[in-house]
Amino acid sequence: MTKVKEQNTETVILEAAKEVFQHKGMAGARMQEIADKAGINKAMLHYYYRSKDKLFSAVFASAINLMAPKIMKIINTEDHLFAKIENFTYKYIDFISKHSYMPLFIINELNRNPNLLKDAFANKIENNIEQKLVAQIDDLIAKGEIRSINPEQLLLHIISLSVFPVIGKPLLKNILQKDDKSYKQLIKERQTCVAEFVINAIKL
Amino acid sequence: MTKVKEQNTETVILEAAKEVFQHKGMAGARMQEIADKAGINKAMLHYYYRSKDKLFSAVFASAINLMAPKIMKIINTEDHLFAKIENFTYKYIDFISKHSYMPLFIINELNRNPNLLKDAFANKIENNIEQKLVAQIDDLIAKGEIRSINPEQLLLHIISLSVFPVIGKPLLKNILQKDDKSYKQLIKERQTCVAEFVINAIKL
DNA sequence: ACTTTTGTCAACCAAATGGTTAAACTGTTT
DNA sequence: AAACAGTTTAACCATTTGGTTGACAAAAGT
After folding, report:
1. Are residues A25 and B24, on separate chains, in Cβ contact within 8 Å?
2. pLDDT score recorded for residue B2
3. Does any strand D atom come closer than 7 Å to the Cβ of A44?
4. In the CATH scheme, what is the homologous superfamily, with its name and number, of domain A63-202?
5. Dihedral angle, C-alpha B25, B100, A163, A161, nearest 10 °
6. If residue B65 lies in a helix (H) or strand (E), which one and from where to where?
């Protein structure tokens, strides 16, 4: 009988840390709580990740590297713009619904320390993906298929419509006087109705 | 010569507390920092507001009561829907640009404790304002002036488009590869282009 | 079998932090 | 000018918190 080491302690810690950091932020997270959630001694946290800061950085980098490719892969296809919009809003809303604390976590910590991004990932292609999208939009404008619009604003529109209802849930739920279940339903509808809305706004 | 007490200590504290709490959140805020910013002894904080919790509640209530009426007053007019949309996006983006930490602060703390809203303000009219807007939208749909759309989704669209680019600035700035100045310019453009976008999306 | 390395833990430590206290100061009343 | 109430401060306290240490067990070499 080979003793099966249930799971790498290092990753057990990282998973526990993700949960605590993403829910409570750097300032609100407690090392003891992470240790408890991981089912190990607090000293282990320092054995594997030397300090709270280092552990936090690992969590942050992990979040960024899960998030960023999702955006990129959808946008970086050869599809028609409308298909891209449909694809992006559908899949992205789905993704962040399942990781609803992540975007807020990233924004908060980035607010605290704008340098985190540089440390987190070896700045990938990113900008030329945006370039590509801009070119595609400009092309459709020239062809008269869509209204004249600033591509950067359009990108902001699409991201805002997808992300904000998820991260602003506790506030928006209250404004719309919804319970948890019917608010979730509202989000689900958005997976298709956001694209419809955006396309209606730009189509000629 | 009556000695002019420069400013009420109580409000000096509240102003300092607002700044610290809204930038760092409940967990990240330090009583000492608030005292320093207010230029007084730390014991004064407890003299006027008994605990960190109570001081926080005062700040949170103040934020809510500054925020909520702004939304209400604009929506609760007799204007045409399009005028309302133009008015709301223009003034609301302007407002939160000047208080950019407030929406994020509210969302964060509401996330931590969803009960905060109940404590913060004696739940005003609110819901029947939303009712009124819904009725107006349904009316325009019936008249064939705008596309058929779920009024709640439309409200989510408008709020998302207005708020998210402001609170997501550190992230979006990076995605769009903008410096501070040109990002600010982008936000300014949104004061008019968001309304245009929304109206294009729903007008028939 | 033995030594070395790696992993784990309970106990501990120093600094930070929210909160308290008792004395002192300030302006007003008597 | 004495008494008084409201305000302010320095020093202090108890708890929490990130981090460390030394003992010890479990593998891994040899």
Report:
1. no
2. 30
3. no
4. Tetracycline Repressor, domain 2 (1.10.357.10)
5. 160
6. helix B52-75
The CATH homologous superfamily for domain B1-50 is: Homeodomain-like (1.10.10.60)
Tokens at residue B185, please? 């310019």
Does A63-202 match A1-50 at the fold level? no
Instruction: Please compute the mean of the pLDDT values over residues A186-194 and round it to a whole number.
Output: 98
B197 closest CB neighbour out of A168, A170, A201: A201
* CB of B3 lies under 7 Å from some atom of strand C: yes
Question: A156 — contact with chain B (CB < 8 Å)?
Answer: yes
Percent of chain A with pLDDT over 70: 93
> Cα–Cα distance between B22 and A127 in angstroms, integer?
32
Within 10 Å of residue B200's Cβ, how many Cβ atoms? 15
Q: Which of B191, B185, B169, B157 is nearest to B88 (CA)?
A: B191
Domain boundary assignment for chain B: 1-50, 64-202
CA dist A108 and A116 (Å) reads 11
Report, as an integer, the average pLDDT of A1-25.
82
A3 pLDDT higher than 80: no
Is A176–B152 a contact, with Cβ atoms under 8 angstroms apart? yes
Contact status of A204 with chain B (Cβ, < 8 Å): no
Bases along strand C below 7 A from a protein CB: 7-11, 16-22, 27
The whole-number Å distance from A32's CA to D15's C1' is: 15
Predicted local distance difference test score (pLDDT) of residue B71: 79
Q: Looking at the predicted structure, is the pLDDT value of residue A1 above 70?
A: no
Contact between residue B36 and residue B44 where contact means Cβ atoms under 8 Å apart? no
Q: Running along chain B, 204 residues long, what does each successive block of 10 average in pLDDT? A: 59 98 98 97 98 98 91 84 96 96 97 88 59 92 97 97 98 94 98 98 96
Both tokens assigned to B140? 């325009």
How large is the average pLDDT for residues A152-176? 96
CATH architecture for segment(s) B64-202:
Orthogonal Bundle (1.10)
User: For strand C, is any atom closer than 7 Å to the CB of A27?
Assistant: no
Structure tokens at B30: 């330090």
